Amino acid sequence: MNDNKINVSIVEDIDDIRNALRVLIDGSPGFECVHVYADAEDALRDMSSKDIDIVLMDIGLPGMDGIECMKILKPEMPKTQFMMCTVYDDDDHIFNALKTGASGYILKRTSPAQILEAIHDLYEGGSPMSSEIARRVVESMHKSEKRSEAVELLTPRENEILDFLARGYLYKEIAAKLFISKETVKKHIHSIYDKLHVQNRTEALNKAFPR
Amino acid sequence: MNDNKINVSIVEDIDDIRNALRVLIDGSPGFECVHVYADAEDALRDMSSKDIDIVLMDIGLPGMDGIECMKILKPEMPKTQFMMCTVYDDDDHIFNALKTGASGYILKRTSPAQILEAIHDLYEGGSPMSSEIARRVVESMHKSEKRSEAVELLTPRENEILDFLARGYLYKEIAAKLFISKETVKKHIHSIYDKLHVQNRTEALNKAFPR
DNA sequence: TAAAAAATATACCAAAAGGGTTATTGCAGT
DNA sequence: ACTGCAATAACCCTTTTGGTATATTTTTTA
């Protein structure tokens, strides 16, 4: 709605926190709090028709939680960015929120100045999160390294071919890409299955790249 | 090695940058630069025998790159944390580094004060990265949401069968599990491929469950 | 209640995948 | 010089997969 200010909406059930956030945002130049909602149902009814830059979304709400709420709202408001603002700092909530579309994740104990900074940062295309939250996210990526366990058994050539397998290529397509015969591809794949103790492509991929 | 200071090693091929980092770290109370290396091979030869808290690792090195180097060193130095310090800000390098075990990722244009802050932050268990880098990481998580896109096109029965496909079951095994004929399984799978616009199992799984 | 969608099943056919065997070449380490 | 491993390739064979078409029954929904 408004000229050059960052339009913010808040979904937060606790009156004191909601009001404090509103006061903080409205009292800061460059920011405007255009709507506040006390629960997910309220937000769903009203929010998608508005033009909002940033939504500050609590997770623990009465009834539908903030992640579910965002899941529904996000497709209707593609330009709006969601920042979770919550007391939960466990992996489940963090990953769920981020996977469902949150672009930022801050904890309620964040200082007012940092909250404003985070909103601004999000508006500018960043993903504000504390460095502990970032560590959780990064740690979760390390895991997809399970590959190595399987992969170290395989020769470089076999790994190369495994990558093609993962993309759904046919034997003959792999052969063409690598300038070798289809039979050789088959041989390599047989060795891969052998080493991974599996019988087919899908099982191999599940072992090599757990989802 | 040293009492209460944070021990840092540097792997960086450009003399000026390497020296500047060393001076910065040694000149700051609470930090000590214990080793510097000009390339990956040098670091591999020497580093794992030392007791190092943080490694500042460049990616673009002559010969072996910094990610490969870390991949080898990491298992030998489980207590050491790696921070990539590089000019590359593309997704490939970022994800590769983080998946391979980096806990922090900063760009070379980061200010000296922020570099020190990042090292300290990493030492305290955080994952320092600029908020643009964080955004890339978060964006990569949004994708796992693709399942719903695909899944909503499919009937409940088709989804059920998709799950079996994902586990590598044969048609006849799925048929036995569901007490239907193999031909019916085939029909369902054909509909799945049709709706997802794919030609085979692996492509279907990649669409439905991006890794 | 009528139409649409989903689940069930068969038949025919071609392509692809996978198991087993054997063999040659080149390269690394002993 | 010998050994072992990796990469290459060919052969035979069976099973699995996927395309197309057609048809019946059940369930959902307009």
Structural overview:
Two copies of one chain form a homodimer. By secondary structure, chain A is an alpha/beta fold. Chain A has two domains: 6-135, 3-Layer(aba) Sandwich (Rossmann fold), CATH 3.40.50.2300; 145-208, Arc Repressor Mutant, subunit A (Orthogonal Bundle), CATH 1.10.10.10. The first copy, chain A, contains eleven helices and five strands. The first copy, chain A, has helices spanning 15-26, 40-46, 66-76, 91-100, 112-123, 131-143, 147-151, 156-166, 171-178, 182-196, 201-208, and strands at residues 6-11, 31-37, 54-57, 81-86, 104-107. A five-stranded parallel sheet of chain A has the order 2-1-3-4-5, with helices on both faces. In chain A, α1 (15-26) links the parallel β1 and β2. In chain A, α9 (171-178) crosses α10 (182-196). Chain A is elongated. The model of chain A has no long low-confidence stretch (mean pLDDT 91). The structure holds a DNA duplex (30 and 30 nucleotides).
- The CATH architecture of the largest domain in chain A would be 3-Layer(aba) Sandwich
Q: Greatest contact pair? A: A-B, 39 and 39 residues
How many DSSP H or I helices of chain A? 11
Taken in chain order, the helices and strands of chain A follow as EHEHEHEHEHHHHHHH
CATH superfamily of the largest domain in chain A: Response regulator
Task: Briefly note the structural class of the backbone of chain A.
Answer: alpha/beta
CATH class of the largest domain in chain A: Alpha Beta
| Oligomeric state, counting identical vs distinct chains | homodimer
Write down the overall mean pLDDT of chain A.
91
